[in-house]
Each structure stands twice: as C-alpha cells, then as structure tokens.
Write a structure and sequence with these properties.
The protein is an alpha/beta fold. The protein folds into 2 domains: 115 residues, Alpha-Beta Complex (Aspartate Aminotransferase, domain 1); 229 residues, Type I PLP-dependent aspartate aminotransferase-like (Major domain) (Aspartate Aminotransferase, domain 2), CATH 3.40.640.10. Helix content is 39%, strand content 14%. Strands 2-8-7-6-5-3-4 form a 7-stranded mixed sheet, with helices on both faces. It has a 3-stranded antiparallel sheet with strand order 9-12-11, with helices on one face. Helix 7 links the parallel strand 5 and strand 6.
Length: 369
C-alpha cells in the first residue's frame, strides 16, 4: 500500500520539555511561546454572548446580516474602507480558512497547484497547501522581513492558486508594501490573500489592508481573536473579490462551516466597540517595551516591531534552540524557535507579549538574580 499523508509534529508540541523546565521555577513558567490573549474581552461582549438566545437554531453560514454589517462598519470606521456586507462572510476564526482555502481554490482551478507564501510566516499557509495536495512555495523576504514579490519566478506565478501575505507579519512584525503586492497579483492574475489579524496593532505608519487598493483579485482575512481577546470564540470574516466571495460563501454552506449564533451576537458587540481595542493597544505597547528590557537582561538586543505583539530576536551564534533552553532554565521563559516559521527564521526566537507586565518583570528579576 502506498503511504499517504502523515502530519508532522505540531510545532508548539515540540516545546513540551522546555515548558517542563520553565515550570520548575517558583511561580511557574512565563509562557511567551503562543500568541494566546490573556486579557479579558469587554463585559458587554460577554453579556451578548450569554443572552442572544441564538443557540437554538442553525446560524447562517455566511454570518447574520448584523454580523456582516458590523464587520463592514468596523472596516469603514477604523480604516476608511468602504465595502458592501454582501462582499463579506463569516469564518470560524481564521485558521480554518487559512488551512482550507487552497483546497477550495484547487476545486475551482484544477490546473493550478501552487500556494505562494512568505518565507518567514505563520506555518498554516504552507500546511494548507499540503492538506490540499498542492505545492507550497516560499517567497523570499527582505531584511525588513517584508515579502519580495519581484523574486517570484513567472513560471511559478502561472501555477499559483494564490499568494498569501501577512501584515503586520507574524513572527517578525514586518510591514509589506500592499499596493505593490496587489499590483503584482493583478499583473500576473494571481489572487492575493492578506491575513490582517494584527491590523489594529500597527505601530509604524497607518494600518494597511489590501482592500485599500480595491476588491478585484484580493481577499482580506480578519479575526476578533487578537483584536478583542476572543480567540476562544472563533469569529472572523473574509472580504474582497465579488466572484471569489460568492464562490466561497456557497462552498462553505455545503461544508457546514458556521460561526455559532451566540458568538455572532458577541462579535457584533465587539466590532462596534473601539474603546477596548485602544486600551489593548496601549497594553501591548507597554509589554513590548518591557519585553525588550527582558531580552536586554538576557544580554540580547532587539528592535521593536513595525506591528503585532511579538518580539523577534536573533540568537547568539545563530542557535535558537540553545537560547530557548537557556531562557527556560535561567528565567522560566518559554519562547518559540524561529524555525517554526520556516527555514528563513532559523537563528531567531519569537516572544509573544501576551503575559501581564508583572509576569514579564518576574522573568527579568530571575535573570538579574
């Protein structure tokens, strides 16, 4: 029998031994390995989740009109993007869309077999290609960690199902020139899919979206997981190209992808409130500064990112696993080796600033004593 697909170890499962070492410290581990929010969502969001009465019936797969209109209002209010709620539909978070999109695109375009993604990136872009039986092809990134579309071979562009971009980027906080990326996609007739889940946490310049450059040939993907500390509810949306959105809406209905009704009600409340996001921005800004202090106490220099809430640090002698183990042993800090985000990340570690400042300062104290 021919061997089939065998999933590789999930990246963060490889940190089990490191986490055990970090937990040996009095006070336990300071886990900065995963970008899981620790701060509470607004009370009114939780109230909407608990009181919608929407748990009895099947929710619409594309999202209720209230859900889609609230998302469209948010895009217009925060980023000046005018888009009809008919060009927008719900996702169960966004990871399921990232992982599933290549499969649905292959059904639509069976002559194409390649998913282009940044060489330094969230690993699910490449995994989605593998799960679809497609070819994942890493696109080089520059010294500022932004994607270099000029490096894409025209032969590969002709085979492409899509090009993924992520701005602000995970893990290094890079900011892509989305105008240039969109122009490249239209020139080569390649769909540009932009993962914009960190858009509210853009530190350098104005927040940017592919939707600032029109809807044709682009798809923007957004989530409430980071923006509103709602990773556990799984609520997001995609918006953009009319033909593609229409196709995905119908495919996803048949597949039964539905954001639960109570979650949709909570999402409306979250999209309509900006105050909690402004407060969260300042929290992350402070944590990034304290995280830089933490790395300085460990003898490492780091630049603050252009966006997002991660610190991206070069490891001494390029040995990311040695630094990962050292931080766990010395300070009880758990970080992610850069290789989790592709070979281009080797020699670096990522720190997610999702722990309270008092936990970060505990780690600093451990390093100093």
């Amino acid at each position: 029998m021919t061997a089939g697909f065998s999933p590789p170890p999930y990246p963060h499962d490889r940190l089990a031994e490191v986490l055990a070492v970090a937990n040996g410290h009095a006070g336990g581990a300071v886990d900065l390995s995963i970008g899981t929010p620790c701060d509470p969502p607004p009370d009114e969001v939780i109230a909407a989740l608990a009181s919608s009465g929407a748990e009895r019936g099947y929710p619409p797969s594309i999202g209720t009109p209230a859900y889609r209109e609230a998302a469209a209002r948010w895009l217009h209010r925060r980023f000046g993007i005018q888009i009809s709620s008919d060009l927008l539909a719900a996702t169960i978070g966004t990871k399921e869309l990232v992982a599933g999109l290549p499969h649905w695109l292959r059904l639509r375009s069976p002559d194409c077999d390649t998913v282009l993604h940044p060489a330094l990136a969230y690993p699910t872009y490449a995994m989605g290609a593998q799960l679809a039986g497609a070819r994942a092809l890493a696109v080089p990134v520059g010294r500022d960690w932004s994607i270099d579309v000029s490096a894409i071979d025209p032969v590969d562009a002709a085979r492409a199902l899509c090009l993924w971009v992520n701005t602000p980027g995970n893990p290094a906080g890079g900011l892509d020139d989305l105008e240039a990326v969109v122009a490249w996609g239209r020139r080569h007739d390649v769909l540009v899919v932009s993962d914009e889940c960190y858009i509210e946490f853009t530190w350098r310049g104005e927040p940017r979206s592919v939707l600032h450059h029109g809807n044709d040939g682009v798809l923007a993907v957004h989530s409430l997981s980071k923006r509103s500390n709602l990773a556990g509810t799984r609520a997001g949306f995609y918006a953009g190209d009319a033909d593609l959105v229409g196709y995905l809406r119908e495919v996803r209905k048949h597949a039964g992808f539905m954001v639960p009704g109570p979650v949709q009600a909570a999402a409306v409340a979250a999209f309509d409130d900006d105050a909690h996001v402004d407060a969260q921005r300042e929290i992350y800004r402070q944590r990034l500064a304290v995280g830089a202090e933490l790395l300085a106490a460990a003898g490492l220099a780091v630049e603050l990112p252009g966006g997002g809430f991660y610190l991206w640090a070069a490891a001494p002698d390029g040995d990311a696993w040695a630094l990962t183990r050292s931080l766990a042993e010395r300070a009880g800090v758990v970080v992610s080796p850069g290789e989790f985000y592709g070979p281009a990340g080797a020699g670096h570690v990522r720190l997610a600033m999702v722990q309270p400042v008092d936990r970060l300062r505990l780690a600093i104290d451990r390093l100093r004593t």
